[in-house]
Amino acid sequence: MEFFEDWPRYVDVAINWSDRLLDGLWTTIQLTIYGGLLAFVVAAVLGLIAGSPRIWLRVPARIIIELFRGVSLVVLLFWLMFVLPQIWMRADGLPFEGLVYNTFLLGVMALGINYGAYGAEAVRASMTTVPQAQWEATTALSMSWPHKMRRVIFPQAWALMLPSLTNLWVHLLKGSAIAYIMPFVSDFTAELNQLRRPTDIWFSHAFIGLVVYFILALVITLFMQALETRAKNRLGRGPSLREILSPAPKPVTTGGAR
Amino acid sequence: MVDDEEVQGSPFWDWEFALEAFPQMFMAFLEVTLLVTVVGTLIAAVLGLIIAILIMVLPKPLAWIVRWATNFIRMTPIVVQLIFMFWAFLWMDALTIGIIVFGVHYATYMSEVYRAGIESVPKGQWEATTALSMSAARTWRKVVIPQALRSTVPSLGNYAISMFKDTPFLLVIGVAEMVTVAGQIGAPTFRYTEVYTIAGVLFLAASYPTAVLVNRLEKRLAYAH
């Protein structure tokens, strides 16, 4: 029961270290946001290509997706960290030399590529779930490809894919804890682990770490649920965010699609 | 860090080194990676079902606690959980801790799958058991669970694959699984190209065919319904 007797000392240590912990937390948040943005771009591009009816577009996209999903995140991270720089070491004068030694950037890339490949499946699946009649209608109206994607297909697919993207983003947040093993990047987990040494109270701090990650995950979930509500409202299904958040909710009218 | 000249002098890919490294890595793959995946999946499958049933049968406040505990485990990183458990149970073998953490973490995912499976059992089935005055235990065992489990098999397969791909996280508590062994082999000569490529290929070679099988199973079960 030493833990309860020494409790005040632990609080002092935690306060002394709070700057480092906050720095680590900020790194984790940055990894999650940049990684998530990259993952979304990768998912949208690969997902659109993998859903294409042209086989010479579809097959390479599928191979890339399976490759990035199939090798584990850690293997991907190590490959980017240890193998990729060797190409730059061997050939002098390749561009972007500083970037391949930037471990933070490599971490973002590994997270973005890996979870982006998972997201590509979500994007492709939700595209095919948009009713066939909608696709046919865009053809009947002879809309151009960018036009029909932007105005008809994507808004509907977006509402469908958001739940999967939410899950993936939370997974990405959790996966970002592996940045702890990367040199020169001190994310939240790394700082927590450092904290163990001066305090010898790892148990309590690891638990605080879990709680902080849990709160971050909840924030992501709430944010994405708000996005989903908004996406559905714009399709004419369900109330708008303002209606939900206002203290006296107005009667909800279900209008048609705008 | 590394001597540039030395790196430039050596080939990018050395077959001899790769062949030397492969047996060790493959042993680690069989002994640790597969072991954790198989035992972890078994724990996840059983514990997930228990959690799902508990949430449904327990009185409200208790069910609420169980539900948020599973949410908590599901939404926190497996890496931090591994470290937490490692230091909390120092007397325990790191591999055992790894298996338990993976099993419990994925049990929380599986409980959601089981919940959906249980909810998909038609209401008429429940009413029929009441009409036949079956006991609650008998209802669950003979009527609900057999029907609920059918559609959950592919999800269990998918989670097994994703647990398999998460096993390298074990390196944070020093379990010598395949990727850790790969790093150890590469470290003395700083030759990582071969070992990490082999690790990636092994992961792909094991997970992709399984994923295809699971997909097929999923389609077959969907048609049979």
From TrEMBL, chain A:
The keyword Membrane applies. Signal peptide: none annotated. Keywords: Amino-acid transport, Cell membrane, Membrane, Transmembrane, Transmembrane helix, Transport. The keyword Cell membrane applies. CDD domains: TM_PBP2. It is a multi-pass membrane protein. InterPro entries: AA_ABC_transptr_permease_3TM, ArtM/GltK/GlnP/TcyL/YhdX-like, MetI-like, MetI-like_sf. The chain crosses the membrane at residues 31-51, 63-87, 99-118, 157-182, 202-224. NCBIfam families: HEQRo_perm_3TM. This is Polar amino acid transport system permease protein. It comes from Nesterenkonia lacusekhoensis. The lineage of its organism: Bacteria, Bacillati, Actinomycetota, Actinomycetes, Micrococcales.
